[in-house]
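Structural prep section.
Before we set up the soaks we want a predicted structure of the protein with pyridoxal-5'-phosphate in place, mainly to decide which crystallisation condition to try first. Input record follows.
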Amino acid sequence: MQFQNTLSFAQQLDRDDPLKSFRKEFVIPDHEGKEAIYFLGNSLGLRPKRTIPYIEKIIQQWDKEGVESFFRGEEPWMQYHDQLVQPLARIVGALPHEVVVMNSLTVNQHLMLVSFYKPEGRRRKILCEGKAFCSDQYMLETHIQQRGLHPEEIIIELHPRESECNLRESDIYAAIEEHQEELALVFLEGANYYTGQVLNMSGIAKAAQKKGMQVGFDLAHAAGNVHLDLHQWNVDFACWCSYKYLNSGPGAIGGVFIHEKHHNDLSLNRFAGWWGHNKSTRFKMQKGFDPIRTAEGWQLSTPSPILYAAHKASLELFEEAGMPAIQKKGQLLSDYLLYLLGEINRTISHHKLRSITPPDAKGCQVSLLMPQKGKAIFNSISEKSVFADWREPDVIRVGPAPLYNTFEEVWQFSQLLQQACIENKI
Ligand SMILES: Cc1ncc(COP(=O)(O)O)c(C=O)c1O
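Run finished without errors. Recording the tokens verbatim:
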């Protein structure tokens, strides 16, 4: 598309937007009496208006029926999970029984490694990004230690080449090839939290599995943002959080994909709890763990229907909008942002702004590498109604979310950014 740097062009994109009606489904934060430009869907998505009535319904049921609410009422809590699985399966490209909603992201990563990190003989290493999100790094280190192994001997880190910002796909394949006899697991972020780079998950899964490795992805920045087809790609497992693009609220309940090929494998280690036990005998409370033969078999504890309700409020909107349309608009929002960045660079004289997000491997997030006075520029746009985030040492992350952000907001953001650059004389 031939973009233009004008308000009227941005407004035309909004008029043509098939998802434009979804913005009114969300509560938009306020800045001095006007709607703020909220570009932090990659951090904490906004609240759907229907979240409160859905949570209220759970509370009312609790008030009326107490513990019997698990079995009685319009939506018995025992069956509530079933309502979440179908929409989530469409978001991540899974079969419904390959998805389970439980716990939160880092916890689920540990649980998945219990089952899918199987060090044996020489094959005991894990391939991951050198710059993975810190929690993933802590998870890996401590998980490896509790197995009696040493992280420095187990972890193989992938890094961008010198003076580059993103991983080269060919370097990932080269590492898999080079360590083909030692790698037990490849565990990567499907979309990198810092750069927004989206990996070729299908290609990586294929290459690693050809060499006998397990493959898992952290989809915190991918779920609800980019196209996923986990079942077809034959990924072994994946985990995500639901408070970012999935708009299910702070501390929202997480999600896990476990490929159906593993559901009946009782030789896999797992940490068990009664919620993962065969539903028909769960309340007999007998000895001997008999896992549900779906992804639900990895559950441990009684889930919170309140968190389920918040999740359902958002997932319904994904069902109504459809993932292909969401993904398409996310691309267009970030493409427009990248175009406007080029426009800003034409007006500032000394140091240019640079996106470190690969234009051909991204979702809706764009990460801007700030040349100097970056923090001052960030503070300036924040004071003027922009919600973005600053990541040390020099990156501003901007994540316009397709369900509630507009092209006009992208244009307004670029105007504020340009003004802040000029004021700071960069
Ligand atoms: C890529 C990535 N992985 C892991 C986490 C940690 O998630 P949680 O705090 O839900 O465990 C985050 C949180 O933002 C993240 O962005």
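Observations: Residues 104-106, 133, 135-136, 189, 193, 218, 220-221, 241 surround pyridoxal-5'-phosphate (CB under 6 Å).
Flagged for discussion at group meeting.
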